[in-house]
Structure formats: structure tokens, C-alpha cells
């Protein structure tokens, strides 16, 4: 309170954004899970030798989920600051923010199916 706002330089802005992202990674279990799942998907992509376009689409899908998670955390933090007590609208705001994450997660699952189903089917046909 009472601190004078100084326009940050680019490196300072980057540092603040990094700090926000790391805070989310350290404190939010869902973000940790999605980072783990994203890494597993990248390993699977490497193993299945997906095409360049498929790499780009997978990276977009993973980035969308993690980006939405970080934004969800920002909304939760603001809601907790503005309304620390129970309020239906505070709850709804958090549910809506979580809904945005769900949209990106569903999208990522569909993309995962489309990209990985053919190589997994090929593997299954080789095995049986
Ligand atoms: N102030 C509030 N008033 C009413 N309902 C709330 C309030 N805060 C949270 N809720 C309800 O509880 C749910 C979980 O809230 P929480 O703050 O724990 O978020 P979360 O991040 O989804 O959970 P987690 O702590 O596991 O990460 C919200 O989606 C909302 O439905």
C-alpha cells in the first residue's frame, strides 16, 4: 500500500512474469500435474516420431492448458483478495475460471487422441 508505481523495463517485467509463473507452479497442484502430463506427452511425441506440424499442434495444446491454469490462479487470487468470505458470485467466478481450463484440457485430450491413435494402433498391430 502506498508504493509509487514505476513503469517497469522489459527485463523487470519479464522477471515479474517469471515470478508469477513460478509462484503458480510451486503452489498449484493442478499446474504441477499439467506440467507432468505435458512432459509425458512430449516424450510420447518424440517416441512416436510425430511430424513437424503435429509437434507444433501438441506444443500449442500444452501451452494453452498451462497458460489457462496460470490465468485461473490469477483469478482465484483476485477473488480471494476481493471476497475472502463465502459469496455465490465469488464461487461462480472461480468455477468459470476453472471452466476455461477445462475447455483447453478437453481440446488437448482430443488433439492427443488424433495425433497418437495411429502410432499406438500401429504398435498394437505389430505386437498382436
Ligand atoms: N469465496 C468463495 N465463496 C463461495 N464459493 C467459493 C469461494 N471460494 C471458493 N469457492 C468454491 O470452492 C471451489 C474451490 O475453490 P478453491 O479456492 O479451493 O479453488 P481451486 O484452486 O479450484 O482448489 P485447489 O485449492 O484445490 O487448487 C471454487 O471453484 C468455488 O466453487
From TrEMBL:
CDD domains: UDPK_IM_like. The chain crosses the membrane at residues 31-49, 55-75, 96-121. It is found in: Cell membrane. Pfam families: DAGK_prokar (PF01219). The keyword Translocase does not apply. The keyword Transcription regulation does not apply. This is Diacylglycerol kinase.
Amino acid at each position: 500500500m502506498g508504493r509509487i508505481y514505476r513503469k517497469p523495463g522489459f527485463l523487470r517485467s519479464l522477471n515479474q512474469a517469471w515470478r508469477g509463473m513460478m509462484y503458480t507452479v510451486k503452489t498449484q497442484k493442478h499446474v504441477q500435474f499439467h506440467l507432468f502430463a505435458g512432459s509425458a506427452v512430449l516424450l510420447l511425441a518424440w517416441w512416436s516420431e510425430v511430424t513437424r506440424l503435429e509437434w507444433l499442434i501438441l506444443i500449442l495444446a500444452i501451452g494453452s492448458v498451462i497458460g489457462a491454469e496460470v490465468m485461473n490462479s490469477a483469478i482465484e487470487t483476485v477473488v480471494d483478495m476481493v471476497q475472502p468470505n463465502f459469496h455465490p458470485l465469488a464461487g461462480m467466478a472461480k468455477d468459470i475460471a476453472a471452466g476455461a481450463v477445462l475447455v483447453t484440457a478437453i481440446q488437448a485430450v482430443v488433439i492427443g487422441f488424433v495425433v497418437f491413435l495411429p502410432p499406438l494402433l500401429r504398435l498394437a498391430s505389430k505386437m498382436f
